[in-house]
Amino acid sequence: MTTSRMRAEIGEQPGALDRTIDGLLPRVPDVARLARDTRQVLFIARGSSDNAAVYGRYLAEARAGRLATLAAPSIATTYRRDLDLSGVLAVAISQSGKTEEIVQTLEWAARCGARTVAVTNGHGSPLAEAAEVALLTEAGDELAVPATKTYTTQLAALAVLGLGLGADVAGDDLRRVPDQVARLIEATEASDALPEIVAGLAGVPGAVVSGRGLAFGTALELALKLKEACYLHAMGLSYADLLHGPIAVVDERTPAILVAAGDGPTLPGTIALAERVRGAGAAAFGVGGGAGLAAASSAALAGPDLPEWVAPLGLIVPGQILVENLARALGLDPDVPRGLNKVTQTD
């Protein structure tokens, strides 16, 4: 069987991450200087980039002590309402750097008094040119429509942003990420759990994908990939929100995919949720979470051996491989999902 572009680009992630981390770690002082007089972070993004922004938000709040929010670009582009953004660090994230809505919203933020940062793989793009500091990722060309290496390198750039914001973490943890991702790719493809989970998802109409805290963005991104490439009705939810009612949809026809880092304060709750899901007669498929989540799950894919703050850079990788395998099992082309283009323009 011919290797899909998506699978090839999944395999390019260790090199892309290594180049990106090497290039961006020296930019930490630039971010720190720009952020020095700000008190809040505003993330501007859509699609996979918005899921990366969720990671950035939790990192800023949980580890750097900065209030962070996700922007509603329509306030700038549709309602055309100016706000007082003095004291705000606006961070726009776009794989291509060409999405007009994101560029316009960053320019709006600057006019409203914000300091500006761009995270993009588009060197020389309008977004990079519009920002005071551009954190340029080194993913290279990405040909498959579903984002893989552009997403993980965005997370690396946001980890660098977190260091510039003063996050109480060890920057050396970032250096371990490329090797961990390479290990994960090999381990996931050799895992007996991979075909078991693919089979479990191939015959159902939908699934719930859940995580919390720093892993929440991973849950949202995995759900998006299942929708994009496999046309599965996948609902991405924080497990706290899931327990407030939507857990009623989890049954023998709607399994749960639960993602977690191998440590951190959200892990016990994720394990408890896996036990509850299985107790209700549904399948619970784990991604990450160490031995505890694996034991509580119907089947599980191992996650990275990384501390919680950088675990999302590796945690999505088993999910990407799962999606690519599931798409092919369903007879779908993961490279060119129906109705999607690489650059999406919105008003």
Automatic annotation (TrEMBL):
Keyword Phosphoprotein among UniProt keywords: no
Superkingdom per UniProt: Bacteria
UniProt-listed Pfam families: SIS (PF01380)
Keyword annotations of the record: Repeat
Keyword set includes Transferase: no
Domain SIS residues, every copy: 31-172, 197-337
InterPro entries to which the protein is assigned, alphabetical: GlmS/AgaS_SIS, GlmS/FrlB_SIS, SIS_dom, SIS_dom_sf
PANTHER family the record matches: AMINOTRANSFERASE-RELATED (PTHR10937:SF8), GLUCOSAMINE--FRUCTOSE-6-PHOSPHATE AMINOTRANSFERASE, ISOMERIZING (PTHR10937)
Protein name listed in UniProt: SIS domain-containing protein
Organism: Actinomadura parmotrematis
Phylogenetic placement of the source organism: Bacteria, Bacillati, Actinomycetota, Actinomycetes, Streptosporangiales
